[in-house]
Amino acid sequence: CIDIMELSENEDLRQFHSHTLKLFCALCALGNNRVAHALCSHLDQSQLLYTIDNQYLSGQLREGFYDVLISIHLETGKEAHLMMNNEFIIPVTDETRSIRLFPDDSKRHSLPGVGLSTSITPRLNFTPPCFITPKRDQPLFSPQIPLGTLKEKAISMLTEAVQGGGAHIRDPVGGSVEYQFVPILKLIGTLLIMGALTSEEVRTILLLIDPSVFGDGKEEEEQTAVAEQGAEKEEATSNEEKAVEAGEEESKEAKQPPKGLLEKSLPESVKRQ
């Protein structure tokens, strides 16, 4: 009996398990939800949620488990949304009439994909995993998975990867920068296509990608207002001036924004993803 963590030392068994995961993905292709439900008896939700969060898996297995998770639980919903990608049918409702060009009175455009919107898109339908089912007229939906937990894990892992990952890390998650970023970006891209992410979650992801471009202008106004108030208080005494200047220097150093994903030196595969 070999533990899954020991597969990094056995290349033949690692290749075998990697090809097995690819086989599972191929069996679930083209919306084969009946096979997807059967595979849930081999890979249940707790196992998948644990493996995608594990930082010690080898790169091939890490990528394979992410692909299996997407193929079994999310691929059908993703393809349904992609089929209506070019449909421009806007439902006329009270919510639609309340949408304006600008989100507030400041007349500034918000981030792309963030804010109030409406469209006709397929609903996310899931069915509790059932391994053995009789013949039924109604087709099965994708096996159910807790989307809330999955989104939290995906965003937290992307945050950790952006803030603590890069080419300068000696031992990145998965053994390379490619295996660290590509599976997470693929999962988040699938959730975006499915429309499962809220506006705040999309805003968080965009800030992780490039905070200098997708940063909020309100924060800059607040910082300038605080700086103006600090400049008025500097006129007290010379000792207070020195203290204020020292405090401003410390705050500037502390408020330096971390580098976004696009500001890092990354492999070409990560940039394409």
Q: What's the order of the H and E elements?
A: HHHHHEEHHHHHHH
Strands of the widest sheet, in order across it, are 1-2
Q: Into how many domains do the coordinates divide? A: 2
Largest sheet: 2 strands, parallel
Organism: Cirrhinus mrigala (Mrigala)
Pfam families: RYDR_Jsol
InterPro entries: Ryanodine_IP3_receptor, RYDR_Jsol
Protein name: Ryanodine receptor junctional solenoid domain-containing protein
Give the structure's gist in a few sentences.
This protein has 273 residues and is an all-alpha fold.
How is the topology of this model organized?
Blueprint: H1 11-27, H2 33-39, H3 45-53, H4 59-83, H5 94-97, E1 126-127, E2 142-143, H6 147-164, H7 177-194, H8 199-209, H9 211-214, H10 217-233, H11 238-254, H12 268-272
Helix pairs in contact: 1-4, 2-4, 4-7, 6-7, 6-8
Characterization of this structure:
With 273 residues, the protein is an all-alpha fold. The protein is 56% helix and 1% strand. The chain has twelve helices and two strands, in the order αααααββααααααα. The chain has a two-stranded parallel sheet with strand order 1-2. Helix 1 packs parallel to helix 4 (59-83), helix 4 (59-83) runs parallel beside helix 7 and helix 6 packs parallel to helix 8. The longest helix has 25 residues, at 59-83.
